[in-house]
Design brief:
The complex is a heterotetramer of chains A (99), B (647), C (166) and D (489). By secondary structure, chain A is mainly α. Chain A has a single domain, classed as Helix Hairpins (Orthogonal Bundle). Chain A contains three helices and no strands. Chain A is elongated and about 50 Å long. Chain B is mainly alpha-helical. Chain B contains 27 helices and three strands. Chain B has a three-stranded mixed beta sheet with strand order 1-2-3. Chain B is globular, with a radius of gyration of 30 Å. Chain D contains 19 helices and two strands. Chain D is globular. In chain D, strand 1 and strand 2 form a beta hairpin. Chain D starts with a helix and ends in a 7-residue tail after the last helix. The chains are: A mainly alpha (99), B mainly alpha (647), C mainly alpha (166), D mainly alpha (489). At the B-C interface, helix 27 of B face helix 5 of C.
Chain lengths: 99, 647, 166, 489
């Protein structure tokens, strides 16, 4: 049952990504985990596209890749800016929201 | 009881609106262009008031024929008839209209002299015009709500005018006191209106007879007592009388117009207007309060030394007398006395104002012998004093004796009490007259020698009022067959002069006069030595106004302020800190101190965090600012929610 | 076929675990490359060759390179302080596991059509779809892309913008 | 399209401002003025074409937004929302004029300001619960930032408190909206109201309480009011104006639009509590205001007191009570907005708000004195001004059902007189404090921002039908519906 097992795989990727986001302290590490999550979603889209013969699903997988690129670019820019102004790359050092 | 019988015809007359509109227009003009008008601004007010007087007079014929003039429009609801308000003139309101516009015109004229040179001259006349507009609105209203509007507006004008010289802290305080005290009474009126609306669904004065027919007596008593509470506040009846003596901080023409002739009489007017709602029980209350005020204020007036204050207490006393008349169910008599009182009391105040204007003093101790320098003022003051004492055949005689007659008819004992009150009245007013105008001029403080007669612009209006003080009573006298009572719809009137009453009241007045001379001027002790300590104690009690102000301060005002402060503290600490309880435990004492003020919200969140994290975690945990921890909560929430919502 | 699936799946999973657990960020990035390649392989097996190429080109070729650059640019910052241990690992693992279980139990309850049920999607159809039905989202994505570029340059530009007044 | 155009005015303005360089302060300000002015004109246009006698929603627009979830972009106005829209547009414009006191980061400020206006207008225009919620939340963020960035005093603390408090409230509301959706599969307010009576009582009670929490925090109802004084005191003047003038009304509006029509039985079940809380609000707020020494805090607590009349009128469930409550929302928005502007005028000059430090300013600043006296009198419910009409109607409407609560509430009227006269006395009367001997009077700009409010208060007080006839039909219909007659749309 490839659909079922590949779904399992994408779930696992997604949850690993979540785990990474929750645990990683390095900002770039966070980005990497987000990429995992996006890949899980893309995998799902492609899987369903194949299973149901749906064109738009593939298109959306394409969009995800494009958005991932945007996200990575902006994210990395922020990290570099952060490393200059705040002299840190650790997400938990940036706690301006602290009450 | 014998309320105005249903008028024969009701005419619709839109011009009615001009009566309050003219002074209102003057107010607007003066407010915006007052500075530019400068010295001419008084004339705007005078012209407006004279115009209102003219319209009032032009209505006289119609009203004396027993017709009613009215105009109405929708106000709070486009279709519900109960919310359409209007103006109307019947005999009762015509009398008030006449009093307000005629005395208002006179006093406006007088003020031109009195306020001459004041930097806020135009503002004064603006307020005066606004007052007249509101008062006329109150009088013309044919609907409880509109009356309430006018009622509050006159209160406002009274406030503005009492604290007109607001640089004086006493004036500012007195204005506030007047406004708040009368507003306490007004809540009674408001509650009465609410109750009336919900029980009878009718607020028009013209329908009150029908309302009386279909409400239970208990309800009527409650409503009428509430309405009387409003009247008592405005007419300064016990226990809401405290504001009126303080109100003398205002300019004297204001005291004459508002705090003697018109506004304070509004309470009497209100009760007369709503008399159909009063049951015997509530009339008994009106009678008791009126009598108490009459006697209480009379004794206080005997002991005061500030001439304006004496006049203020005298006003209280006379208003009490009017309330007594109302309590006897005799609204026309009360209104009659209201009319004559307006003339002689306004004149007394203007006379006092003239004295203050000339001598710059208002303590009896600093005045004396002014008759030589101010003959006109002295003569007019004398006329007014005689009129108030009820000596035959001046105005005061007719109105007071009518009340005495009614009292004798209903409760014979009341006659003697009222005669005692009349003696007091004579005593205190002649004490003022004798010590101001007779005797020798005082030198210390250089009070009187350079005094001079007031200018014509002040004397002339006083003379006009003097004519009223002499002759206004004739309108209700048997000599002219009581045209006034016919105007008010009263048909059962006493014909001819009642000689015993005439005799008794003359005796009372003579007694009072003697008292004024012996005790007030010569300052001799009349009491036997054994009773003197008691006498001086009583004197001190009265001179300190029975300590009512002090009692109020101790038992009402301070607890009120304490309550306010207490609630504010409660708000800050308890409410703001209520949710804290749980979180507070987890905090160190130092943090507790630092966060004491801002505790609520943070600790609320804290409590939440504690439940999530367990006992060991601190509050800050949830607000670390670390996004990942927020995210963790989100993920957990998603897991739990989706597990719960899974189908 | 299923052997290929299995291999790629194991490869991907292993890479993913490394991505989130390796202390050394550089290695984690390389593991991400592994994951990306594994997913690309799966795309091929799912007959979405075009997407597989895009995945390799954009992800491995561009994004990953960018990440590596960033790591090296900021290297001295995390080299100086010892790479800190992960935080809240146990609760996070529990949360992730919980989420996994929920997801699995949800999808397990579903029934799927026989695989492969339909024709594979042709590249031509995809192209048609992109310029017809999805032309608006497509253009919006392009716009977003441009905005992201401009934004990234603005953010990372030298000299830095003034810090906000505190 | 009229309503969408109305929403678009500030939105376009915001986008324009974002496109301008941040040094072009003048241009930014003119764009903001133009945008808010256009919105004001648009709302007046609505008023001109509005047909008061019709029970249906007017100018309605309905577009499918998320069809899978039955979510629509539905906007429309009726007699309940039109006064609120007018109020929002008017106050936004005037507070924008008064925003000159903002001297830093103007670009961000005006952009957020316009976003705030979009949110406020949208809240009052939305007829779809989901859309309503979105706008409701849109309002939150700009206000949070306004207090947090341009405020004074403990601004971070106050902003955070405001945010968390209101967010907690809207969370309850969101859950209620979701529960309602799961039960009915609809977000359409009109449709939901029409099926209001079919929901079972327990469900209605639960959801009414949830919505109540959301709205009550915004109103704010005792004991959820403590965010209000802090937020008001620390917010910049225009922020306070909008906070008191419009944001509080969103809570009250929610009762009229959502809580009462959709849960009629729940609302009746809750009526006693509403009346009681209204009474507490009135009396308690007045007493606490009495004890304040900070001018702004005093006005803030007076808002608590005045909003109590809205609750009381609502609880009365009569035409008079509802008209009064609605009238109070409009009138209080105008009066309190003006009061905050006046506080701002004084604070800009004296840099203190402590009432005890003033005294005798009446001689120095006659124009200011006239405005302050006027609005204080309006606030204490002087007849002839709009506050009286509102309070009277609310009281008379509630009296029949909640006699003793109303009777106690009348006390609040007396206390209101006491604290407002205290303000007048401490600021204007008495001997002039020499410290302020050189205080300048109001400028033309300040007069312009206050004069329209004065006119509105006066006009509504003298001829209340101006507003009453707009709202009456809609309110009567909702009451009839709540009390059991079928919905007629």
């Amino acid at each position: 049952m490839p659909v079922q097992s590949l779904l399992l795989l994408s779930h696992a990727l997604f949850c690993l990504g979540i785990y990474g986001i929750l645990t990683r302290r390095h900002a770039i590490g966070l980005l990497l985990s987000i990429e995992l999550i996006l890949n899980a979603a893309a995998l799902n889209f492609v899987l369903f596209s194949r299973a149901f013969g749906h064109v738009q699903a593939q298109a959306f997988a394409l969009f995800i890749i494009a958005l991932a690129a945007c996200e990575a670019v902006v994210g990395l820019a922020i990290i570099i800016r952060l490393s200059r102004t705040a002299k840190t790359v650790f997400a938990d050092h940036v706690d301006l929201l602290k009450g | 009881m014998d309320h105005a019988a249903a008028p024969a015809v009701t005419l619709t007359l839109p011009q009615l609106g001009w009566i309050p509109a003219l002074p209102l227009l003057a107010f607007t003009l003066l407010l915006f262009f007052g500075r530019r008008l400068g010295r001419f601004s008084p004339w705007v007010a005078v012209a407006a008031l004279a115009g209102a007087l003219g319209i009032t007079l032009s209505l006289a014929g119609t009203v004396f024929h027993g017709h009613r003039v009215a105009v109405s429009w929708a106000w709070l609801s486009a279709d519900a008839p109960v919310w359409s308000i209007g103006l109307s003139v019947d005999g009762l309101s015509w009398l008030m209209l006449f009093v307000v516009t005629s005395i208002g015109t006179m006093i406006a004229l007088y003020s031109m002299g009195y306020m001459h040179g004041d930097p806020r001259l135009s503002r004064f006349f603006a307020y005066l015009s606004l007052f007249c507009a509101s008062m006329l609105l109150l009088v013309l209203a044919d609907h409880f709500l509109l009356l309430y509007v006018g009622w509050e507006l006159v209160g406002l004008c009274s406030y503005l005018l009492i604290s007109f010289w607001f640089e004086k802290p006493e004036a500012a305080a007195a204005g506030r006191k007047a406004f708040i005290t009368t507003r306490i009474g007004d809540t009674g009126l408001l509650l009465g209106i609410l109750l009336l609306f919900w029980t009878a669904h009718e607020l028009h004065f013209s329908q009150l007879d029908a309302v009386r027919a279909h409400l239970s007596p208990g309800l009527l008593t409650l409503i009428s007592v509430l309405i009387f509470l409003g009247a008592a506040g405005k007419s300064a009846q016990i226990p809401l009388h405290v504001w009126l003596p303080d109100a003398m901080e205002g300019p004297t023409p204001v005291s004459a117009l508002i705090h003697a002739a018109t506004m304070v009489a509004a309470g009497v007017y209100l009760v007369a207007r709503t008399l159909p709602l009063f049951t015997p029980e509530s009339l008994q209350i009106v009678l008791t309060i009126g009598l108490l005020t009459h006697l209480f204020a009379g004794t206080v007036a005997l002991t005061q030394t500030d001439i304006k204050r004496i006049l203020a207490y005298s006003t209280l006393s006379q208003l009490g007398l009017m309330m007594v008349a109302l309590g006897l169910g005799a609204a026309p008599l009360a209104m009659f006395h209201l009319g004559t009182h307006a003339f002689f009391k306004a004149l007394l105040f203007l006379g006092a104002g003239s004295v203050i204007h000339a001598a710059h003093a208002q303590e009896l101790g600093q005045l004396g012998g002014l008759r030589k320098t101010m003959p006109w003022t002295a003569a007019l003051f004398f006329i007014a004093a005689v009129s108030m004492s009820g000596l035959f055949p001046l105005s005061g005689f007719w109105s007071k004796d009518a009340i005495l007659l009614a009292a004798r008819h209903d409760h014979p004992w009341l006659l003697w009490v009222l005669l005692g009150g009349a003696a007091m009245t004579t005593a205190y007013i002649f004490r003022v007259y004798l010590r101001c105008f007779e005797g020798t001029a005082k030198d210390h403080h250089g009070a009187t020698p350079h005094a001079h007669e007031s200018p014509m612009i002040m004397v002339l209006p006083m003379a006009m009022l003097g004519l009223g003080a002499i002759g206004a009573g004739l309108a209700g006298s048997p000599w002219l067959h009581h045209p006034l009572f016919r105007l008010l719809g009263e048909t059962h009137v006493h014909e001819g002069v009642d000689v015993p009453i005439l005799a008794w009241s003359t005796v009372a007045a003579a007694l009072g006069l003697g008292l004024a001379w012996v005790v007030g001027v010569q300052q001799r002790y009349l009491l036997p030595p054994a009773l003197r300590p008691l006498g001086s104690q009583l004197y001190r009690l009265a001179a300190n106004k029975y300590y009512v102000d002090e009692l109020y301060d101790r038992f009402l005002i301070r607890p009120f302020l304490d309550l306010a402060r207490g609630l504010a503290g409660f708000d800050q600490r308890v409410i703001d800190g209520a949710v804290n309880g749980a979180g507070r435990v987890g905090w160190g004492l130092g943090e507790l101190k630092a966060w004491f003020d801002q505790a609520v919200v943070d600790q609320l969140v804290n409590g939440l965090a504690r439940t999530v994290r367990g006992a060991g975690a601190t509050l800050r945990w949830i607000q670390t600012g670390i996004v990942q921890q927020y995210l963790f909560v989100v993920v957990m929430a998603v897991v739990v929610l989706s597990a719960l919502l899974r189908r | 076929m299923s052997i290929a699936y299995g291999l790629l799946a194991v490869l991907t999973l292993l890479g993913a675990v490394w991505v989130v657990t390796l202390r050394n960020l550089f290695r984690a990035a390389l593991s991400l490359g592994l994951v990306l390649l594994g997913v690309a392989g799966l795309f091929i097996l799912l007959e979405a060759e075009f997407l597989a190429f895009v995945q390799i080109l954009v992800y491995v070729g561009a994004i990953l390179t960018l990440v590596v650059f960033a790591i090296m640019l900021t290297a001295k910052l995390h080299a100086s302080s010892a790479s800190p241990a992960s935080r809240q690992t146990v609760p996070a693992a529990a949360a992730a596991l919980g989420l996994f279980l929920v997801l699995v139990s949800t999808t397990n309850a579903l029934t799927w059509p026989d695989y492969p049920a339909a024709e594979a999607v042709s590249l031509a159809a995809l192209g048609q779809e992109l310029v017809k039905t999805l032309v608006l989202p497509f253009e919006v994505i392009s716009l977003v892309f441009v905005a992201a570029m401009v934004g990234a340059i603005a953010i990372a530009a030298n000299p830095p913008m003034k810090p906000p007044p505190s | 399209m009229a309503l969408t155009a109305l929403l678009a005015c500030p939105l376009v303005g915001m986008l324009l401002i974002l496109a301008l360089p941040k040094t072009a302060v003048k241009a930014i300000r003119s764009v903001a003025l133009l945008a808010t002015g256009a919105a004001l004109l648009g709302s007046l246009q609505l008023l001109a074409f509005f047909q008061p006698g019709r029970t249906q929603v007017q100018f309605q627009e309905k577009l499918s937004w998320i069809p899978q979830l039955n979510i629509f972009y539905t906007v429309g106005v009726d007699g309940i929302s039109l006064p609120m829209v007018l109020l929002t547009a008017l106050l936004s414009f005037l507070a924008c004029i008064a925003s000159t006191s903002i001297t830093e980061r103007q670009k961000e400020y005006y952009a957020l300001y316009l976003l705030l206006e979009v949110g406020m207008l949208g809240t009052f225009l939305a007829l779809d619960l989901f859309l309503f919620y979105v706008f409701w939340e849109v309002v939150l963020v700009p206000m949070y930032l306004m207090i947090g960035i341009w405020g004074g005093g403990r601004r971070e603390y106050s902003a955070f408190k405001f945010f968390v408090y209101t967010l907690a409230g809207s969370l309850a509301m969101l859950l209620a909206i979701l529960a309602l959706y799961l039960r009915t599969r609809s977000f359409d307010m009109v449709h939901l109201a029409a099926m209001g009576h079919t929901l079972d009582l327990g469900f209605q009670q639960l959801l009414f309480v949830a919505f109540f929490l959301g709205f009550a925090i915004k109103v704010p109802v005792f004991p959820f009011h403590t965010w209000l004084p802090d937020a008001h005191v620390d917010a910049p003047t225009p922020g306070s104006v909008l906070l008191a003038g419009v944001l509080l009304k969103m809570g009250g509006y929610g009762f009229f639009r959502i809580a009462y029509p959709i849960f009629p039985e729940g609302a009746q079940w809750f009526g006693g509590t509403m009346a009681l809380l209204g009474m507490i609000n009135i009396v308690y707020g007045a007493f606490v205001a009495m004890a304040q020494t900070d001018f702004k805090r005093l006005v803030a607590y007076s808002s608590v007191s005045h909003m109590g009349f809205v609750l009381l009128g609502l609880a009365g469930l009569t035409a008079e009570g509802w008209n009064g409550a609605m009238f109070q929302m409009f009138s209080h928005g105008v009066i309190t907005g003006a009061m905050f502007l006046l506080v701002g005028v004084l604070y800009d000059r004296a840099h203190t708000r402590n009432l005890e430090e003033f005294g005798g300013l009446g001689v120095r600043v006659p124009v200011y004195a006239a405005f302050l006296i006027f609005f204080s009198l309006a606030s204490l419910g002087l007849p002839g001004l709009s506050g009286f009409v509102a309070e009277f109607l609310a009281l008379i409407g509630a009296y029949g059902r909640w006699t003793w609560q109303t009777t106690v509430s009348v006390l609040g009227v007396v206390v209101a007189a006491a604290y407002m006269l205290k303000v007048i006395r401490q600021v204007l009367l008495g001997p002039l404090n020499t410290r302020w001997a050189a205080l300048p009077d109001m400028t033309g700009r300040e007069v312009i921002s206050l004069a329209p409010l004065l006119l509105v208060v006066l006009a509504l007080g003298v001829y209340p039908l101006l507003l009453l006839q707009i709202q009456d039909t809609a309110l009567q219909q909702v009451i009839a519906h709540v009390l059991g007659q079928p919905w007629q749309r």
